[in-house]
Write a structure and sequence with these properties.
The complex is a heterodimer. Helix content of chain A is 0%, strand content 52%. By secondary structure, chain A is mainly β. Chain A is globular and about 40 Å long. Chain B is an all-beta fold. Chain B has no helices and eleven strands. In chain B, the strands form two sheets. In chain B, strands 2, 4, 5, 9, 10 and 11 form a six-stranded mixed sheet that branches. Chain B has a five-stranded antiparallel sheet with strand order 1-3-8-7-6, with no helix packed on it. Classes of the chains: A mainly beta, B mainly beta. The A-B interface holds A 32, 34, 42-44, 46, 49, 91, 93, 97, 101-110 and B 31-32, 34, 36, 42-46, 49, 51, 88, 90, 92, 98-100, 102-105.
Protein backbone atom coordinates (compact mmCIF):
# COMPACT_ATOMS: atom_id res chain seq x y z
CA UNK A 1 0.00 0.00 0.00
CA UNK A 2 0.83 3.73 0.04
CA UNK A 3 2.08 3.94 -3.54
CA UNK A 4 2.67 7.34 -5.10
CA UNK A 5 3.37 7.81 -8.79
CA UNK A 6 4.74 10.74 -10.74
CA UNK A 7 4.60 11.54 -14.41
CA UNK A 8 6.71 12.17 -16.34
CA UNK A 9 9.82 10.61 -14.84
CA UNK A 10 12.01 12.96 -16.80
CA UNK A 11 11.52 15.88 -19.13
CA UNK A 12 13.73 18.06 -21.29
CA UNK A 13 12.34 21.38 -22.41
CA UNK A 14 13.40 24.64 -23.95
CA UNK A 15 13.82 27.75 -21.86
CA UNK A 16 10.60 29.72 -21.63
CA UNK A 17 8.23 26.80 -21.92
CA UNK A 18 5.99 25.43 -19.19
CA UNK A 19 6.15 21.93 -17.79
CA UNK A 20 3.44 20.10 -15.86
CA UNK A 21 4.26 17.30 -13.44
CA UNK A 22 1.57 15.00 -12.05
CA UNK A 23 1.59 13.30 -8.69
CA UNK A 24 -0.92 10.57 -7.91
CA UNK A 25 -1.65 8.52 -4.83
CA UNK A 26 -2.59 5.14 -6.28
CA UNK A 27 -4.09 3.23 -3.38
CA UNK A 28 -5.12 5.85 -0.86
CA UNK A 29 -6.71 9.26 -0.73
CA UNK A 30 -4.34 12.07 0.15
CA UNK A 31 -5.82 15.30 1.40
CA UNK A 32 -2.30 16.68 1.59
CA UNK A 33 0.53 16.35 -0.87
CA UNK A 34 3.93 17.97 -0.81
CA UNK A 35 6.29 19.15 -3.51
CA UNK A 36 10.03 19.06 -2.98
CA UNK A 37 13.00 20.02 -5.09
CA UNK A 38 16.46 18.53 -4.81
CA UNK A 39 19.55 19.84 -6.54
CA UNK A 40 22.55 17.51 -7.03
CA UNK A 41 24.22 16.58 -3.76
CA UNK A 42 21.82 18.83 -1.84
CA UNK A 43 19.12 18.03 0.66
CA UNK A 44 15.40 17.90 0.00
CA UNK A 45 13.84 21.33 -0.02
CA UNK A 46 10.11 21.64 0.58
CA UNK A 47 8.57 23.93 -2.01
CA UNK A 48 4.90 23.84 -1.09
CA UNK A 49 2.13 21.98 0.66
CA UNK A 50 -0.82 21.13 -1.51
CA UNK A 51 -4.22 20.70 0.09
CA UNK A 52 -7.14 19.23 -1.81
CA UNK A 53 -9.68 21.87 -2.69
CA UNK A 54 -7.72 24.85 -1.41
CA UNK A 55 -4.74 26.97 -2.31
CA UNK A 56 -1.28 25.62 -1.82
CA UNK A 57 0.95 26.92 0.93
CA UNK A 58 4.34 27.93 -0.40
CA UNK A 59 7.60 27.97 1.51
CA UNK A 60 9.51 31.18 1.86
CA UNK A 61 11.39 32.07 -1.30
CA UNK A 62 9.29 29.90 -3.62
CA UNK A 63 7.46 31.94 -6.26
CA UNK A 64 3.83 30.88 -6.33
CA UNK A 65 3.29 32.43 -9.76
CA UNK A 66 6.15 30.44 -11.20
CA UNK A 67 5.36 27.11 -9.56
CA UNK A 68 1.62 26.59 -9.98
CA UNK A 69 0.11 23.87 -7.86
CA UNK A 70 -3.33 22.36 -8.31
CA UNK A 71 -4.79 19.68 -6.06
CA UNK A 72 -8.11 19.05 -7.73
CA UNK A 73 -8.85 15.64 -6.29
CA UNK A 74 -7.89 13.43 -3.37
CA UNK A 75 -5.52 11.45 -5.56
CA UNK A 76 -3.96 14.02 -7.88
CA UNK A 77 -1.80 17.09 -7.46
CA UNK A 78 0.00 18.86 -10.29
CA UNK A 79 2.99 21.17 -10.32
CA UNK A 80 3.45 23.42 -13.32
CA UNK A 81 6.79 25.11 -13.76
CA UNK A 82 5.96 28.17 -15.82
CA UNK A 83 8.43 29.88 -18.13
CA UNK A 84 11.13 27.44 -17.14
CA UNK A 85 14.75 28.53 -17.13
CA UNK A 86 17.96 26.51 -16.87
CA UNK A 87 18.22 27.29 -13.16
CA UNK A 88 14.92 25.43 -12.67
CA UNK A 89 16.61 22.22 -13.75
CA UNK A 90 16.33 19.92 -10.78
CA UNK A 91 14.82 16.75 -9.35
CA UNK A 92 11.21 17.40 -8.38
CA UNK A 93 9.68 14.96 -5.94
CA UNK A 94 6.16 14.81 -4.60
CA UNK A 95 4.95 13.05 -1.51
CA UNK A 96 1.55 12.24 -0.14
CA UNK A 97 0.47 11.92 3.43
CA UNK A 98 -1.59 8.86 4.17
CA UNK A 99 -4.56 9.91 6.31
CA UNK A 100 -4.10 7.45 9.16
CA UNK A 101 -0.34 7.40 9.31
CA UNK A 102 0.61 10.04 11.86
CA UNK A 103 2.31 12.32 9.39
CA UNK A 104 4.07 9.62 7.39
CA UNK A 105 4.84 10.84 3.89
CA UNK A 106 5.26 8.47 0.98
CA UNK A 107 7.32 9.73 -1.90
CA UNK A 108 6.80 9.46 -5.62
CA UNK A 109 9.71 8.36 -7.80
CA UNK A 110 10.54 11.93 -8.79
CA UNK A 111 10.71 13.89 -12.03
CA UNK A 112 14.02 15.01 -13.40
CA UNK A 113 13.68 18.31 -15.26
CA UNK A 114 16.32 19.65 -17.61
CA UNK A 115 15.75 23.08 -19.10
CA UNK A 116 17.95 23.89 -22.08
CA UNK B 1 14.01 27.87 13.19
CA UNK B 2 13.33 24.18 13.42
CA UNK B 3 16.44 22.20 12.61
CA UNK B 4 17.37 18.60 12.09
CA UNK B 5 21.07 17.84 12.16
CA UNK B 6 22.89 14.86 10.74
CA UNK B 7 26.53 14.14 10.11
CA UNK B 8 26.95 14.20 6.34
CA UNK B 9 29.47 11.36 6.37
CA UNK B 10 30.36 9.31 4.56
CA UNK B 11 30.10 6.66 7.22
CA UNK B 12 32.08 3.67 6.06
CA UNK B 13 31.48 0.23 7.56
CA UNK B 14 32.51 -3.25 6.44
CA UNK B 15 29.92 -5.75 5.32
CA UNK B 16 28.33 -7.50 8.28
CA UNK B 17 29.04 -4.71 10.74
CA UNK B 18 26.54 -2.53 12.56
CA UNK B 19 26.00 0.92 11.08
CA UNK B 20 24.88 3.62 13.50
CA UNK B 21 23.30 6.77 12.14
CA UNK B 22 22.44 9.68 14.38
CA UNK B 23 20.16 12.68 14.20
CA UNK B 24 19.39 15.55 16.55
CA UNK B 25 16.50 17.96 16.37
CA UNK B 26 15.83 21.36 17.84
CA UNK B 27 12.07 21.44 18.35
CA UNK B 28 11.32 19.86 21.70
CA UNK B 29 7.65 19.60 20.77
CA UNK B 30 8.29 17.24 17.86
CA UNK B 31 5.99 14.25 17.82
CA UNK B 32 6.88 11.96 14.95
CA UNK B 33 10.23 10.79 13.64
CA UNK B 34 11.12 9.05 10.41
CA UNK B 35 14.08 7.49 8.68
CA UNK B 36 14.17 7.47 4.89
CA UNK B 37 16.73 5.86 2.60
CA UNK B 38 17.66 7.56 -0.66
CA UNK B 39 19.73 5.85 -3.30
CA UNK B 40 21.64 8.08 -5.68
CA UNK B 41 19.32 9.49 -8.31
CA UNK B 42 16.21 8.07 -6.66
CA UNK B 43 13.53 9.46 -4.38
CA UNK B 44 13.43 8.72 -0.65
CA UNK B 45 11.78 5.57 0.61
CA UNK B 46 10.47 5.12 4.11
CA UNK B 47 12.40 2.74 6.33
CA UNK B 48 10.96 3.33 9.77
CA UNK B 49 8.85 5.62 11.87
CA UNK B 50 9.02 6.05 15.64
CA UNK B 51 6.84 8.04 17.97
CA UNK B 52 7.69 6.92 21.53
CA UNK B 53 10.87 6.90 23.53
CA UNK B 54 12.83 3.69 23.31
CA UNK B 55 13.69 1.23 20.60
CA UNK B 56 11.68 0.00 17.65
CA UNK B 57 12.94 -2.94 15.65
CA UNK B 58 12.05 -3.99 12.12
CA UNK B 59 14.21 -6.72 10.65
CA UNK B 60 17.80 -5.51 10.52
CA UNK B 61 16.79 -1.96 11.40
CA UNK B 62 16.35 -0.50 14.88
CA UNK B 63 15.24 3.05 15.48
CA UNK B 64 15.97 4.63 18.85
CA UNK B 65 14.30 7.75 20.20
CA UNK B 66 15.26 9.85 23.19
CA UNK B 67 13.02 12.89 23.43
CA UNK B 68 14.74 14.23 26.55
CA UNK B 69 18.04 14.42 24.68
CA UNK B 70 16.33 15.26 21.39
CA UNK B 71 18.01 12.63 19.33
CA UNK B 72 16.93 9.77 17.17
CA UNK B 73 19.18 7.10 15.75
CA UNK B 74 19.04 4.25 13.28
CA UNK B 75 21.02 1.06 13.68
CA UNK B 76 21.51 -1.27 10.74
CA UNK B 77 22.68 -4.73 11.73
CA UNK B 78 24.55 -7.05 9.39
CA UNK B 79 25.14 -4.19 6.96
CA UNK B 80 25.10 -5.12 3.28
CA UNK B 81 26.61 -3.32 0.29
CA UNK B 82 23.04 -2.75 -0.87
CA UNK B 83 22.51 -0.61 2.23
CA UNK B 84 24.91 1.95 0.79
CA UNK B 85 22.77 5.07 0.38
CA UNK B 86 22.00 8.39 1.99
CA UNK B 87 19.83 8.14 5.08
CA UNK B 88 17.52 11.03 5.82
CA UNK B 89 16.15 11.80 9.23
CA UNK B 90 12.79 13.60 9.23
CA UNK B 91 10.90 15.13 12.11
CA UNK B 92 7.33 16.28 12.31
CA UNK B 93 7.56 19.88 13.39
CA UNK B 94 4.78 19.84 15.92
CA UNK B 95 1.37 18.44 16.60
CA UNK B 96 -1.13 19.92 14.18
CA UNK B 97 1.41 20.57 11.44
CA UNK B 98 1.83 18.14 8.62
CA UNK B 99 5.17 19.25 7.22
CA UNK B 100 8.32 17.31 7.91
CA UNK B 101 11.69 18.87 8.49
CA UNK B 102 14.46 16.84 6.88
CA UNK B 103 18.07 16.60 7.81
CA UNK B 104 20.65 16.81 5.06
CA UNK B 105 21.29 13.11 5.28
CA UNK B 106 24.18 10.81 6.13
CA UNK B 107 25.86 8.88 3.37
CA UNK B 108 26.53 5.27 4.32
CA UNK B 109 29.08 3.19 2.45
CA UNK B 110 29.19 -0.55 3.14
CA UNK B 111 32.26 -2.20 1.70
CA UNK B 112 32.25 -5.89 0.68
Amino acid sequence: GAVVSQHPSWVICKSGTSVKIECRSLDFQATTMFWYRQFPKQSLMLMATSNEGSKATYEQGVEKDKFLINHASLTLSTLTVTSAHPEDSSFYICSARAPTSQETQYFGPGTRLLVL
Amino acid sequence: QKEVEQNSGPLSVPEGAIASLNCTYSDRGSQSFFWYRQYSGKSPELIMSIYSNGDKEDGRFTAQLNKASQYVSLLIRDSQPSDSATYLCAVNANSGYSTLTFGKGTMLLVSP
